[in-house]
Amino acid sequence: MSEKTKMLETFENQYPDRDYKIIHTAPEFTSLCPKTGHPDFATLVLEYIPDKLCVELKSYKLYLESFRNDGIYYESVTNKILDDLVEVCQPRYMKLTAKFNVRGGISSVVEVEYKQKND
Question: Which of 14, 100, 101, 115 has the maximal Cβ count within 10 Å?
């Protein structure tokens, strides 16, 4: 478990027998461009169907803030965040949409998705 993953806390889902969707929107995500060192700004939309655990929001907020000084590409940071959340929450379904602001005349959207495997 990485240092960043350790920041994420969970709590017990009170309705594990029901499929329901949780949506969290974080409009102030920032990281750094690894090429230029300039800040990248994004709105992150996390959607998930919990199984036994839900992510605790204060820890999620602090976790996202921990990327503020990291030089990391859009694609990498979006996949890393999803991987870390899946690791700690073990949801039935999770999707992260990262809508990066315009820079250099181009805006980018990165979507990553996880579906629980049925054993």
Answer: 100
Q: Which sequence positions are flagged as catalytic?
A: 33, 40
Closest-CA residue to 43 (of 59, 58, 24)? 24
Residue written as token pair 């899946």: 86
Higher pLDDT among residues 4 and 58, named by residue: 58
| pTM of the complete model beyond 0.70 | yes
What's 104's DSSP letter? T
Q: How far apart are CA 62 and CA 58, in angstroms?
A: 6
Q: Which of 47, 49, 56 is nearest to 18 (CA)?
A: 49
pLDDT at 119 over 70: no
DSSP summary character for residue 118: P
